[in-house]
């Protein structure tokens, strides 16, 4: 059927809250001579997801929060095609829609995500109503081209305004993150500022291979799962995927390998390629429970990671044998006297055998403790490692902590500590030593500084013996291997 412009606008408008109906209406499914001649419609997972978005949109003003969809998948399931159809649906069925599309890299955004949109735009029944460019899709009516548009914008931590300023009160907002695992947490945070407009249809969809076991994309399926509708798509269940290649990967690497989990099954790995401590190790540590007093014969060690900058916090933890406890979290401050008194209080309360403090911001606290007669010890994270397989002292301490977690360490079920432990990545340097990712580098990829993790790691800085009547004595076992 041929439509004139007015009929076309009315027809598209009838699908305002029906993305699946829009999909079948707007593209030449099964028509000979078109790229869709061998397809009778979208794939099963796409149908299900379009249905979910439609159900939420039909709630109308009772839709009090954004529609948030997270899709983790293997390769070749048609994520870019789904995103393209969704972009065209959003802009074509609601006047003055505004939106932003971004991806993990500028290259991915331009050459894959936005290039795929061009293919579907050229198949779209209503293409005459909109103008496609290399960076935007907008109304062909000059009067509305600035207010009725969706832009492809590379993300940048240093310039997040495009995401922070995305408001469209009373209309519709679309946000799409492609390959979302690698998009900075900071961009996620500023994007949430666009979710506050009242009586506004807001659709936020994030897609990606589940390559990392930390970060905001991972937390859509864990800590924040109550706020997201999540899908994990096995590539083998999708019509368009290369089944032979997928089976080859399974045969080579194994069904339960991290390679197959990420690239085929669409589930998060036990450890990302460069992740130092895997989620599976930390998960097991959270499940362990020991009896109170079980390690009383072993040294008690307090670790202190001070902080004066940014959003960092001062963290104090205590470890004895395979057990540990977070003692205090304090916002950044320069009151060294107060901090020293607090540490001294914990030292006395837990009869600690040693207190180790990060030298970075801890020299003032240490000096006050020394004047109080406390025998605390400063630890230089960048100092020499006692084990030449590690680049420096910080990498060494994290290595010791990792072994402790694997061998039997128990940690509380606390999200902040969990995130800290699984967050840092590591590489092997040119000399074959393990180099742990710096706090600065973690912040640059949008993750918070792992202050609790560093505080716990500090408890492994040096060997400690148990005090008897205020004096140290040697114990048969090392302090983190109580069972020999």
Task: Characterize the structure shown.
The structure is a single chain. This protein has 484 residues and is α/β, with parallel strands linked by helices. The chain folds into two domains: 261 residues, 3-Layer(aba) Sandwich (Rossmann fold), CATH 3.40.50; 195 residues, Nucleotidyltransferase, domain 5 (2-Layer Sandwich), CATH 3.30.420. The protein is 35% helix and 18% strand. It is built from 17 helices and 17 strands. An eight-stranded mixed β-sheet has the order 3-4-5-2-6-7-1-8. Strands 11-10-9-12-13 form a five-stranded mixed β-sheet. Strand 3 and strand 4 form a beta hairpin. Helix 14 packs across helix 17. The chain is elongated.
Question: Can you give me a brief rundown of this structure?
Answer:
The chain is of the alpha/beta class and 484 residues long. 35% of the residues lie in helices and 18% in strands.
Q: In angstroms, what separates the terminal alpha carbons?
A: 80 Å
CATH architecture annotation of the largest domain: 3-Layer(aba) Sandwich
In which range does the helix fraction lie? 25-40%
What form results from the Cα inertia axes? elongated
State the helix count: 17
The total strand number stands at 17
By CATH, the superfamily of the largest domain comes out as P-loop containing nucleotide triphosphate hydrolases
Number of domains: 2
- β-strand percent reads 15-25%
Structural class: alpha/beta
* Sheet with the most strands: spatial strand order: 3-4-5-2-6-7-1-8
Largest sheet features: 8 strands, mixed
Name of the CATH first level of the largest domain: Alpha Beta
Rounded to an integer in angstroms, the radius of gyration calculated over CA atoms is 27 Å
CATH topology of the largest domain: Rossmann fold
Residue runs with pLDDT of under 50 for 5 or more positions: 473-484
Mean pLDDT reading: 89
